[in-house]
Amino acid sequence: MDFATLETLRQKHPAWRLLVADHAPLIISFLHGIFLDANARALPQRELVLRLEDHLHALRERLGEDAFPCTAGTYLDEWAANGRGWLRKFYPPDTDEPHFDLTPAAERAIRWLVQLTERPFVGTESRLLTVFHLLKQMTEGTEQDPQARLAELERQKGALEAEMERLRAGHLELMDESALKDRFQQMADTARGLLSDFRELEHSFHELDRVLRERVATWEGSKGELLETVLGERDAISGSDQGRSFRAFWDFLMSPTRQEELTQQLEQVFAHPAVRALQPDPRLMRIHFDWLEAGEHTQRTVARLSEQLRRYLDDRAWLENRRIMQLLRGIEQQALSVRAHPPERAFLELEEPSPALELPLERPLFSPPSRPRMADATVLEATEEVSAEALFNQAFIDKEQLRENVRHALRSREEVSLAELVEEHPLQHGLAELVAYLSLAAEDRHTAVEEAQPQTLFWTDARGCVRRAVLPLVRFHR
Question: Which of 151, 256, 293, 449 has its CA 20 to 30 A from that of 199?
């Protein structure tokens, strides 16, 4: 707490500004009665204006009509301005009426002022016992020696057995009134402090949401990197010490057994004469229900912020898709404008009309090439005269023409069988051309061969004889 830090806090911290405000008694008395005394959160503007007008009317009757010249709405807007920061003004979903909630800084300042008032009883024993109890939990929870922990449990077991023997003998030790008042006062302060923790936790989530929205609005990278950053920070908040502590507290409080136990213990404590002498706040009887309400409000706030962030990202995706559609519409309009007068020369060249997808799992496995083996044999000298016409009568099979036949057939249908192809384009070179079709089918991964279903093909050879071949059904797919 050096001079520079204190000077910065005095100028910028909302709690300090509240304590030195011109109308600090008006502001603090109203906010304390509306939000803290009633454990209220997120009140609508209409209700808050009416209650502030009643509060101002009561003060003007006592201090004069010129005491507070502004209207209730003006005061609320001033207290929620960035230069003040004592109220948070926001619009809940599905409503156009602004709501107000107390900020954690203002609540901290008001609770500090509450502690300045004289209390009917000030005790220190319970705080000392709390310190010892917490230190004991920490030492036992971090003890790594099993024998030491067993020894501590045996000591606790002996103490419990000794206390049970004293009870059986009729010796009952009761807590005196001073110790009871001391512990009740600490319980009440801690219970009210938990409500403050909920408001501060909700404020931290709002700050996180604001930072994320600024980052989304100024993001220039890819959407995947943005989502990874956003979700990473959300997970970091949930996995932080504060997030884990809140989750453990919420799981503990949501247990019906714990709620019933808290209700019974509060009723039993409030019925004690020593506690009734302190004139405790009756709202402490249902403080655990206030915890549940504040926790549910915080959970709904987090869910609502997540939903708003998701819609914000969806809006950005919609804008990007809209820009893509505008570009496509522009291309279509440009194409229609030059339809009557097409370019005389090629202005765009495409290697393929559609992209080719090559999935890794569809690639064939490696097959090593076969190596021919040369056998040693005696080469005999040829003595017969053989005609050389067979060398010049070889037929050439144009596989590109066969591929074109397949593509032409698939233009008007999803699939075509090899028998249909042969019927539409009769074989010109007989069995050799049929084998070339089968070679094309083996090279194309979209072709299906059904071994269980045979098909029969017919063609006419060069001599005019009808030939027939029976082979498995081959289907070419688009």
Answer: 256
Q: What is the pTM of this model?
A: 0.45
Output the CA torsion sign for 238, 289, 124, 157.
negative
Instruction: Give the model confidence (pLDDT) of 93-152 as tens digits.
Output: 778 888 888 888 888 888 888 777 655 555 555 555 666 566 667 677 777 888 888 888
Enter the tokens of residue 368: 């090593």
Three-state SS for 225? helix
Q: For residue 240, give both structure tokens.
A: 């932080």
Instruction: Return all residues near 182 (Cβ < 8 A) that are at least 6 apart.
Output: 121, 123, 124, 125, 126
Residue whose pair of structure tokens reads 């207290």 in the numeric block: 79
- H-state helical runs in 338-398: 389-392
pLDDT in tens, 302-313: 666 666 666 666
Rounded alpha-carbon distances, angstroms, from residue 259 to 131, 244, 253, 262, 290: 26, 21, 7, 5, 12
- The answer to whether 48 and 97 have CB atoms below 8 angstroms apart is no
- Whole-number Å distance between alpha carbons of 39 and 33: 9
